[in-house]
Design brief:
The chain has about 90 residues and is mainly β. The chain has no helices and five strands.
């Protein structure tokens, strides 16, 4: 049996660059430079301080956000990276 091939048109809009994902910050240790988001698709996304909205150095767990993400983790990385993070209904990066 041949596995079904995933085409870009079969992926959620946010994964093809055509939209944004929603999610919740699930981990950010005080003083840390990174954390994690759990997306509406139940996947975990790496969140760097560099991708936070201007004026934010961290986001507490439970913060609702929207973000964009690539199609695959960067080489040598385990998680997709959340980019252009915005607070739900608010600030942009």
């Amino acid at each position: 049996m041949t596995p079904k091939r995933l085409w870009r048109s079969n992926l959620p809009a946010a994964r093809t660059g055509g939209g944004r994902l929603s999610g919740t910050v699930t981990r950010w240790d005080p003083g840390a430079t990174c954390g994690f988001i759990t997306g509406e698709d139940a996947a975990s996304y790496f969140l760097s301080r560099d991708d936070l909205p201007r004026g934010y150095a961290e986001l507490p767990a439970g913060t609702a956000v929207t973000f964009s993400a690539g199609l695959a983790p960067a080489p040598g990385e385990r998680y997709l990276r959340a980019r252009a993070v915005r607070l739900e209904g608010g600030a942009a990066t």
